Amino acid sequence: SRFVSSQLLNTVSKNGKQFSTSAKNKARVAVAGASGGIGQPLSLLLKQSPLVSELSLYDIVHAPGVAADLSHIETKAKVTGYNGNEQMADAFKNVDIVVIPAGVPRKPGMTRDDLFNTNASIVASIVKAVGENSPKAFIAIISNPVNSTVPIAAEVLKKLGVYDPKRLFGVTTLDIVRANTFIAEAKGLDPATTHVPVIGGHSGVTIIPVISQAKPSVSFPQPELDKLTVRIQEAGTEVVKAKAGAGSATLSMAYAGAKFTFSLAKALHGESNVQEISYIESDVVPGVKYFSSPIILGKNGVEKNLGLGTLSDFEKKLLETAIPELQKNIKKGEEFVAKS
Ligand code: NAD
Ligand code: LMR
Fold first, then answer.
1. In this structure, which ligand is nearest to the CA of 235?
2. pLDDT (tens digit per residue) in 181-194
3. CB-CB contact of 173 with 202 (8 Å)
4. Which of 112, 154, 256, 264 has the CB geometry, 3.0–4.6 Å to 173, for a possible disulfide?
5. Rounded CA gap, 195 and 202, in Å?
6. Coil vs helix vs strand at 57
7. Does 143 contact ligand 1 (Cβ within 6 A)?
8. CA distances from 100 to 166, 204, 258, 321 (A)
9. What does the alpha-carbon distance between residue 89 and residue 81 come to, in Å, rounded to a whole number?
10. Quick check: bond before 165 cis, omega within 30?
11. Is the ipTM beyond the 0.95 threshold?
């Protein structure tokens, strides 16, 4: 079983850093939306990790069942399930990291923004409970539309007087995972050692693949570059269509969410130079208050924003197209909280 566990861990830690397994170096992690398509496999991956000491599973349904099931796995993380509003405060007490995949997913024909009306209030209520019970927790938001749910979370935390922009993250890791996979496939590379930054936001044209900065470096004729760019931007829709009404990406998202959470846990416990890409409050693009770009994580969250780096002319055009859409999505999120 140890072998199986470490195999699984290796698949979610391609950055290759050693995990620290001493007791004090473990994180207490809560998952909100733990019974869902993402929540269950994400919780499984977290339960497998020596980086996690406690796993607090919150949902409006089935959380005790998911918790009972996971609690039989022979790893140290202590698993507790919390069901419904009246148990929400307990779910978020004394936690270091809260990952939020709660909310409805897309069906074919929908945009991520079509989820706003349902998911905005779900995210707002969860973040409020986190702010009230673990105001210093790192909060990682998966629920769509991420471009708006992160500003919603920020405004809710501001109202509570506990907002720290270094501790709030929109999870865009799946875009990078997809870019790594598609570019590696196109060039016959090993996807596990291919690194392709994706910046901007997490929907359609706001997703900006920066293939010019890929490591190892790659180049494509423009028509192929166009196609790969659109495939990365529309990869979520590719899965929504293939699932034909049964939801959106869950397993690849669980992988990506676990990967991001492990980076937060490592940074929290003092590992240096933990690099990720995340949608955060930002000043790297003037007039765009939230933007995803490479960052260095530390004990207190975002330690350094590494910015955009050098973009090709093609990528600069993608950025120009993304800006008004991001601004609109951000404003919509901020106004939702202002009005409520
Ligand atoms: P799902 O419907 O399978 O699961 C959602 C879970 O949230 C359910 O268990 C549901 O009971 C729970 N939930 C609903 N309201 C809640 C509340 N108020 N408090 C706590 N839990 C609540 O959906 P899924 O496929 O897991 O997707 C979840 C979200 O993640 C969607 O919004 C989807 O668009 C988004 N998503 C984001 C990314 C990304 O890259 N950021 C990738 C995939 C999916
Ligand atoms: C994704 O990128 O897979 C998610 O944002 C889900 C979706 O709606 O596409």
1. 2
2. 999 999 999 999 99
3. no
4. 256
5. 18
6. strand
7. yes
8. 17, 21, 12, 28
9. 12
10. no
11. yes
